Amino acid sequence: MRYSRQNKIVEIINNNEVDTQEKLAALLRESGFEVTQATISRDIKELQLVKTLSSSGKYKYAVSTSKDMPVTDRFVKIFRETVTSVDSSGNIIIVKTLSGCANAAAEALDTSNLPHIKGSIAGDNTFILIADDPDNVPKIIDGFKEMLYSRAKND
Question: CA angle, 137 as apex, 81 and 93 as ends, to 5°?
Fold first, then answer.
């Protein structure tokens, strides 16, 4: 539930000018998520959301675009707990996730600044990664599978 809610938060702030936690809570409730202010505050911190100046001159919540931010254990945990399979075709890597979790898992990888990955496109339960060269795809996938396998060993 938390991953689906956090995924919805990212979707909401990308599509709306959300300037307060109260407005975010109201939009989440409209989407079927019953939340408290404490939950919203915790989600904002975990997602590392920032306030930026919008085109209307107001401040709004946004996903941080800083490449210097450290990768949090939270994003690694999201990836490990939501990815169900990894496959590829050419320089495209196809990653399947639990329903509603593709955006969060893709964001985890995007913020990791992993070498050889040019970008991602996410849907509801699948996202694709574009590798810089098809020759680098096997080592990228091996890294993902190692991360997923270490989850099973450590659980």
Answer: 50
- The CA distance from 40 to 2, in Å, is 11
Of the candidates 112, 103, 114, which has an alpha carbon nearest to the alpha carbon of residue 140? 114
DSSP for 103-137, please give it.
HHHHHHHHHHT-TTEEEEEE-SSEEEEEES-GGGH
**pLDDT tens digits for the chain (155 residues)?**
787 888 889 889 989 999 999 999 999 999 999 999 999 999 988 888 889 888 888 899 988 765 544 445 666 677 788 889 999 999 999 999 998 888 878 877 776 667 899 989 999 999 999 999 999 999 988 878 777 766 444 44
CB burial readout 97-110, b (16+ within 10 A) else e: bbebbbbbbbbbbb
Contacts of 46 (CB under 8 A, 6+ apart): 6, 72, 74
**Look-up: residue for tokens 């939340």?**
35
DSSP 72: P
